[in-house]
Amino acid sequence: MQAKETLFADLVQGRAQQFQVPLYQRTYSWTEKQLKQLWGDILEQAELIERGEKANTHFLGSVVLAPSPQNEATFPRWLVVDGQQRLTTLSLALAAIRDHIRDTEPDEAERIDEEYLINKRKNGSDHFRLLPTQADRPQFAAHVRGPLTEQAGGGVAAAYTYFRRKLVEAADPAAPQDVFRIEQAITSRLTLVAVTAERADNVHRIFESLNNTGLKLSQADLLRNYLFMKLPTRGEHVYESYWLPLQDSLSNEELEQLMWLQLVLDGDDRVRRQDLYAAQQQRFEHGKASEEEIEAYIRELHRSAALFRRLLHPEEEPDATVRAHLLRLESWQAQVTYPALMLLLDRRERGDLDSADTARSMSYVESFLVRRMICRVPPNNLNRIFQAVPGQLPLDVPVADGLHQLLSADNRFWPDDDELREKIQKAPFYQFGRPQQRKMVLRRLEESYEHPEPVDFAAAQLTIEHVMPQSPGDEWLRMLGEDVADGENAKDLHSRLQHTLGNLTLTAVNSELSNHPFERKQGLLQGSHLEMNRRIAATERWGAKEILARADELTDRAVALWPAPLRGVGRAERSRDWHLAHQVLAALPHGTWTSYGDLAAFLGSGAQAVGNHLASTPGVANAFRVLTSEGKVSAGFSWTSEDEEGDVRSLLTAAGVAFTVTGAADPAQRLTADDLALLVTEDDDQAESADTAQGVPSNQDEETRADRFFHQLAADDSPETVEAVRALFAPWEELGGWIGHGAGQVTTSAFLMLGEAGAPGRGIWPLTLYPGGGRGGTAEVVFQHLAAREPFTDRSLRAELLRRLNELEGVDIPEGKLELRPGFRLSLLEKDRNRELLAETLAWFRDRWERRGAA
Question: How deeply is 124 buried, as exposed, middle or buried, from its count of CB atoms within 10 A (0-12, 13-18, 19+)?
Answer without folding.
Answer: exposed
